[in-house]
Amino acid sequence: MTTSTNSVEAVKPTKSVYVARLLTDAVTRELDSHAGLGFDIGQEAPPARAELLERVTGKDAAIVTLTERIDEEFFTAAGPSLKVVANVAVGFDNIDLDAAARHGVTVTNTPGVLDGATADHTFALILALGRRIVEADRFIREGNDWVWGPRMFVGLDISAGATLGIIGLGRIGRAVARRARAFDMRVIATDATRPLGSSVDGVEIVTQEELLATADVVTLHVPLLPSTRHLINAETLALMKPGAYLVNCARGGIVDEQALIEAIDSGHLRGAAIDTFEGEPRVNPELIARPQVVLTPHTASAGEATRDRMCRLAVDNVLAVLDGREPLTPVKAS
């Protein structure tokens, strides 16, 4: 375990920040410029629970990721000095917001800075599914003999009138829609804030039932809330267009993975692409075993500049709160 305390040489740190996971190189180098702050920096791997609780004790702030469980025990261990927890993520289901409020701790996240990267990844998965890229790559690597034929690895013609259904037309959903329109896809979406039948930048707002029945590809872009847990389940999967694909770059708990596996095995769905998992970092072995499923390890935001922006925003939120200012991107308990 390596602990690094960074500060301007002539200024003794007056406040301390626990950084649970190693940030990007660029942002880590920038920590030295923050006079009066000491940074206790963890490793690249997630800290063990005991280490997390020990190192946050007495800190004024903590920068954490989705792998850390931030709950009553965490806030009690930190003590009354803790003023802010900055999550390096858009999601915050790893944080007990009610416990944070009881302890008077501000919680922040990193929305907005990763929209483009996540949309890029989402559309890469759509293309990989529709054109069966991963299956074809595996076929070659396994050393199979082959001769070109008109039936070989035939998939979905993305740009020949395919329909994309977006569940959740927020920032990331709209970014995905822009990419889909560039591929000449018809785009429909659900959005509780807009009237049914209306059009937003070429995206038609429809009911969830119509979206599921119509879309060749359904992509999820909603937060994980009690109301969205297992939003995609056996019942909703049965409503999907036969032969459709499902993409999830949102949160693992939104999809009932066992129901998804059954829908694929029955042939009702043609395939799925998953970036976030119910038991993350554990991945259901049944998903791994199915060649129709494309898997990535929660890397939708993993562009170099994007990860720098995420880490920098988390640091900026900490600086704001410790300086007595409002954070840039606060999270409020519902």
From TrEMBL:
Keywords: NAD, Oxidoreductase. One of its GO terms (cellular component) is cytosol. It holds the Pfam family 2-Hacid_dh. CDD domains: GDH. InterPro entries: D-isomer_2-hydroxyacid_DH, D-isomer_2_OHA_DH_cat_dom, D-isomer_DH_CS, D-isomer_DH_CS1, D-isomer_DH_NAD-bd, NAD(P)-bd_dom_sf. Residues 40-331 form the D-isomer specific 2-hydroxyacid dehydrogenase catalytic domain. Residues 123-300 form the D-isomer specific 2-hydroxyacid dehydrogenase NAD-binding domain. Signal peptide: none annotated. Gene3D superfamilies: NAD(P)-binding Rossmann-like Domain. GO terms for molecular function: glyoxylate reductase (NADPH) activity; hydroxypyruvate reductase [NAD(P)H] activity; NAD binding. It comes from the Bacteria. Belongs to the D-isomer specific 2-hydroxyacid dehydrogenase family. This is D-isomer specific 2-hydroxyacid dehydrogenases signature 3. It comes from Actinomyces glycerinitolerans.
